[in-house]
Design goal:
The protein is mainly α and 67 residues long. The chain has helices spanning 7-20, 22-62.
Length: 67
C-alpha cells in the first residue's frame, strides 16, 4: 500500500464510503453467510450419502440389514 501524508483524510473517505453503501454492505454479509450455510449443507448431505452407501454395501455383503 502507498504511504500518504493525509491518513486522516483517507480514513474519513473510507468511513463515508462505508456509510453511504450501508445496504450493499449488509447484502454482502448476508450473501457470505448464506454461502457458508450452503457449503455446510452440501458437505453434510454428501457425508450422509457416503455413509449410507457404505452401510448398503456392508448390508449386501453380510446379508444382515438393521435399519
Amino acid at each position: 500500500m502507498r504511504k500518504v501524508k493525509n491518513n486522516q483524510a483517507i480514513k474519513r473517505l473510507a468511513m463515508k464510503s462505508f456509510a453511504a453503501s450501508r445496504t450493499r454492505n449488509i447484502m454482502a454479509v448476508i450473501a457470505i453467510a448464506l454461502t457458508a450455510v450452503l457449503f455446510t449443507a452440501v458437505f453434510t448431505v454428501g457425508v450422509g450419502m457416503a455413509q449410507d452407501a457404505e452401510q448398503n454395501l456392508i448390508c449386501r455383503r453380510e446379508a444382515i440389514c438393521t435399519v
